[in-house]
Amino acid sequence: MYSQKQAYSGKTLSVTGQVTKFSPEIMGKNWIHIQDGTDYKGSFDLAITSAISVMVGDTLTFEGKITLDKDLGYGYFFDVLMEDAQVK
Dihedral of the CA atoms 61, 3, 50, 60 (nearest 10)? Predict the structure, then answer.
């Protein structure tokens, strides 16, 4: 996804990966980080926002809209972010 991120901007995608971090109820959303074993120039972690709760170590498929270059302020910037994802 990172190697061709412009092609995915604004599109709804499904991705599968292992949950490496879960941060509940930040800015009204749960924040999930997944990895699938791929790496593109040091980018290997996908941040996801969702209303669902997950456990670190879960391997899940998420579907959500891709947003690029999301700046939340306070040093939180995401090259690629999947927003409002659902588990498939």
Answer: 20
46: its two tokens:
């996908």
Q: How much is the pTM?
A: 0.93
Taking the CA atoms of 80, 82, 87 and 88 in sequence, report the sign of the dihedral they define.
negative
What's the rounded Cα separation, in Å, for the pair 77 and 21? 17
The DSSP output letter for 3 is: G
Task: Return the percentage of the chain with pLDDT > 90, whole number.
Answer: 92
How does pLDDT run across 11-41, given as a tens digit for each residue? 999 999 999 999 999 999 999 999 999 999 9
The Cα–Cα gap between 68 and 80 comes to 5
- Do 9 and 67 meet the contact criterion of CB atoms below 8 Å apart? yes
